[in-house]
Write a structure and sequence with these properties.
The protein has a five-stranded parallel sheet with strand order 2-1-3-4-5, sandwiched between helices. The chain has one domain: Flavodoxin domain (Rossmann fold), CATH 3.40.50. By secondary structure, the protein is of the alpha/beta class. Helix 1 packs across helix 6. It contains six helices and five strands; from the N terminus they run βαβαβααβαβα. The structure holds flavin mononucleotide. The site of flavin mononucleotide has 20 residues, from helix 1 and strand 4. Flavin mononucleotide binds next to helix 1 and strand 4.
Amino acid sequence: MKIVALLGSPRVNGNTSYLTDQALAEAGRLGIETEKIVLAQYQIHPCQGHDGCEDFASCPQEDDTEIVVQKLFEADGVILATPVYFQDVTSQLKTFIDRTHFHWYHDRKMRATCAGTIVVATRSGIEDTTKALAYFITRRSSIGAEQILKVHGFARREGQIRDNVPVVEEASRLGITMAEALLAR
Ligand SMILES: Cc1cc2nc3c(=O)[nH]c(=O)nc-3n(C[C@H](O)[C@H](O)[C@H](O)COP(=O)(O)O)c2cc1C
């Protein structure tokens, strides 16, 4: 059983990454295989808006999108993690989300049965960003909005979130809850 986390932050040692690591570490301790995908380390080009995905056997763009889709869509549990950029997900994550329009047209969904979101902001935009992540999860899987586990915190400098012990604990709990849900299947 495997949980895959998709990290939208380009800061590999950043706040969102740290919380994601806590969740995955706890799941790993319970025997779940885990993987964190740092989107910034993959080549994901923006959707070109052909708006005819159903006419193509594969997306005409050649990049790493399919590699990431394969990992994410085959996972038993998924975590979507992003800092807030301009009240929304980062451009790395939005670019990837747009590219899964193709998979929606080809009836390809994530097979995950549990999901979590992790969002970090300095001040504002948590609600809209969490909603965007939840929308992606509900549109690309059979998971209902009410089933999604949500964690958020406030921080600005890289790694600052470590000092926010309650949020770090919440992220750990998210990992434990998802792992327990998978083990109970
Ligand atoms: C381009 C950019 C846009 C941002 N927009 C917002 C915003 O709209 N609201 C906010 O509260 N913080 C905003 N932030 C701050 C980040 O959300 C914050 O620094 C966060 O801790 C970064 O997380 P990370 O370390 O995981 O990358 C922005 C940061 C950047 C670089």
